[in-house]
C-alpha cells in the first residue's frame, strides 16, 4: 500500500518500507555531501591558482574596498599583514 504526500510522491504504507526509504535518502544525502565537498575543494584550488595562495573572496573584496577608499570588512590586528590588502593600497 502507498499513500500520496503533499508533493504527489508515493510513500510506503508499511513501516519497513519507510525505514528503507529513509536509509536510501540518508545514503543519497551522504553521497551528495561528499560530492559537494569535492566541488568546494576544487573551487578553492582554482580560486587560489588564479588569485594566488592564501587568497580568499573576502580578502579580494577587502582589497577592492580599500582601493575604492572604503573601509574593509575584515581588519587584521597586525598593520603589516598583507592578507587584507592594506599594504598594497598604501603603496
- The residue fraction in helices comes out at 55-70%
Gap from first CA to last CA: 73 Å
Mean pLDDT: 77
How many DSSP E strands? 2
Order of helices and strands: EEHHH
Q: What sort of overall outline do the alpha carbons produce when their principal axes are compared?
A: elongated
Rounded radius of gyration (Å): 24 Å
Q: Which structural class matches the secondary elements? A: mainly alpha
Strand order of the largest sheet: 1-2
Task: Pick out the low-confidence regions.
Answer: 85-89
Q: What is the helix tally?
A: 3
Largest sheet entry = 2 strands, antiparallel
- Which percent band covers the strand fraction? 5-15%
Overall tally of domains: 2
Helices and strands, with pairings:
Layout: E1 2-4, E2 10-12, H1 15-51, H2 57-67, H3 86-90
Antiparallel strand pairs: 1-2
Structural descriptors:
3 helices; elongated; 91 residues; mainly alpha; 7% strand; disordered C terminus
Please describe what this structure looks like.
With 91 residues, the protein is mainly α. It has two domains: 1-52; 56-91, no CATH class. Helices cover 58% and strands 7% of the residues. It contains three helices and two strands, in the order E-E-H-H-H. It starts with a strand and ends with a helix. Residues 85-89 have low confidence and may be disordered.
How would you concisely characterize the structure shown here?
58% of the residues lie in helices and 7% in strands.
Amino acid at each position: 500500500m502507498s499513500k500520496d504526500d503533499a508533493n504527489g510522491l508515493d510513500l510506503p504504507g508499511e513501516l519497513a518500507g519507510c525505514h528503507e526509504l529513509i536509509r536510501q535518502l540518508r545514503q543519497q544525502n551522504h553521497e551528495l555531501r561528499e560530492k559537494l565537498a569535492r566541488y568546494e575543494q576544487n573551487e578553492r584550488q582554482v580560486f587560489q591558482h588564479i588569485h594566488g595562495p592564501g587568497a580568499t573572496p573576502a580578502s579580494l573584496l577587502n582589497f577592492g574596498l580599500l582601493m575604492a577608499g572604503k573601509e574593509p570588512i575584515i581588519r587584521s590586528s597586525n598593520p603589516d599583514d598583507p592578507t587584507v590588502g592594506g599594504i598594497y593600497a598604501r603603496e
